[in-house]
Amino acid sequence: MERRWELDALRGVMLMLMTLTHLPTLFSSPFGQPFGFVSAAEGFVLLSAYMCGVVYTQREQRDGEEPMRSALLQRAFKIYLCQAALLVFLFSFIAGIGLLADQDAVKNLMSFYLERPVVAVVGSLLLLYNPPLLDILPMYIVFMLASPVLLVLGLRRGWTPVLALSVAGWFGAQFGLGRVLQAQLIALTGLPVPPQQGGAFDILAWQFLWVLGLWMGSSQAAKRPAVPQGLPHWAVLAAVAIGVAGTVWRHAVGQAAFPTLPGTAIPNMLFDKWRLGPLRMLDLFALLLLVLHFGPWLKQRLPRLRFLETLGSASLPVFCAHLVVALLALALWGEPDKERSIGIDLGILFGGFAVLYAVALISQQLDCRAAAVQKRFKERRAARLARLAATSGERRSPTSRAHSPPH
User: Residue 133: left (phi > 0), alpha (psi -120 to 50), or beta?
Assistant: First the structure.
């Protein structure tokens, strides 16, 4: 598909917010969930699924089901290689720095690996053990592997049963079904990996966001937009009210909706990030409606920020780079500390974003070179086939036809 700069810019915003959240500075808390009880992770998953739905539905319509499935599996394998590289970096370089410096932040982050290194390595390669910060890409791998089946079902049978099953899975996750299934899967392997070491994200809950985005993108590619362009006036007003209330509430009380009241476990579960609690989903849907409604208007009036577009256009390399930077910062400086100089925190931020921008530029250059090589290969192949066809045609054409006697 042709690149849409506004989607690249939006992905760039999500990457910046995730970087601000994960880097261990005093800016982490204010920029975590800045627009209410919704984080950049939800927006990034939803947008990634939308792009996946658009791109691979177009691929299926152009080339067929098998090339679409093959392309998705190749993408999943690429993400798996990125995850494996990050694990090697964590278990070697970061572990070495953390132990030499006696850095509690690193030792807490990889405590299970330090206790059971062999089990941790095997479990992490099987996506069963996922240390903090490195528990996002495994979720993407699972979603990419499931996407061929979801897209085929949606395109052939309609998206209603797919969405209904996805909603049922999300509902079950609210009552702990996702964690039960995760524990059962680990038990089948025989690896002694504690279920809580499988990652913070409840995949059974988060699959709903992926299926939702996949449906929206696939419907857009099929020229049947999932969301009508003219939203009802009452829906826009309700979304504005929920969005404003959520933003004010979050910055008034902090990242937990009910931080000070006694017995707040159940109310806070309604806003839970890892299971995507119901009120969190309500806040997310309100923000989504606002983006859909005001997005075209903002696109015409806001200046294009090339920095964000560059980051968003190389989302996978930049995402991996932001994890590398965050892990290095944790190993060198530890958790955010009010006693630490503000200059160090600013240096971490500016240095981190400089690295991300450099990675994005390098990735663009590599992509351009790869595209040029592929274009030359296709041109040479087409020319070779044309020559073969011409030669074959000359051999098949009768040269003595003009001199043959009449019947």
Answer: left
